Amino acid sequence: MYLILLGAPGAGKGTQAKLLSEELGIAHVSSGDLFRENIKNGTSLGLEAKGYMDRGELVPDATVIGMIIAHLETEACAKGALLDGFPRTIPQADALDTALHSSFSDSIQKVIYIKVETEELLNRLSGRWICPVCSTPYHEVKNPPKVDHLCDNEGAALYQREDDKRSTAENRLQVYFNQTMPLIEYYLKRGLLIEINGQQKVEKVNQDILAVTGSNRGELSEPLVA
Ligand code: AMP
Asked: Which residues have C-beta within 8 Å of that of residue 65, sequence separation ≥ 6?
């Protein structure tokens, strides 16, 4: 099964993807996490991506497409994947279709669009702090750790992603509006898009997504029609 989680930075795709990949038994594939792992390991891919990421820009299509398709071919994705942060442009979506069709004789089953208003997105991004050990996200106001700036699970000092700082976050949202939002129409026209209200509690968003994907794998509900 191949599902796409679509939404702006800060919409909660990563949080939902972690829950859903366990519930649905498929791999969580996050392009942002793969880039951050490459940066941590000092690979040439990481080196290439870092400048774009720090500025809140998109990494070039050819680079991200190559990385994701290679990852989909690994054993970890044998049962399919829940794609988080990919595709982000129409050429990426086209490349994904072609690869799924030719290499896996498969296709995208559903595109879950998590919708959140712009002001809320900016507040979420610029207040977000993350544990460097377990990646748990916290929020300065809405979900602070028990002890200031320390992870509840690991006790590690939390950090703010370079690209979550306010001016970069604004740039990331602009890039999303210009380059990624056209995908909503793209998947709507193909009858694959399902819209979910992302301004609810994490558990409720998760329930709403499960209801449309069917916790019983393979039972998928009807998408929106264009
Ligand atoms: P994310 O963690 O999904 O917010 O991604 C962090 C950053 O990684 C983005 O702001 C981009 O610079 C880069 N990135 C992640 N996924 C993609 C993608 N599909 N296409 C281009 N750049 C990406």
From this structure: 91, 92, 95, 96
* Closest listed residue to residue 143, CA positions, set 129, 164, 161, 126: 129
User: Which tens digits make up the pLDDT trace of 127-169?
Assistant: 989 999 998 989 998 899 999 999 999 999 999 988 888 888 8
- All structural domains of the chain, each given as residue ranges with its CATH number in brackets, are 2-116+169-213 (3.40.50.300), 127-164 (no CATH)
Give the pTM: 0.86
CA–centroid distance, residue 63 to ligand 1 (Å): 11
Tokens 């929106």, residue located: 224
What's the 225 CA to ligand 1 centre distance in angstroms? 28
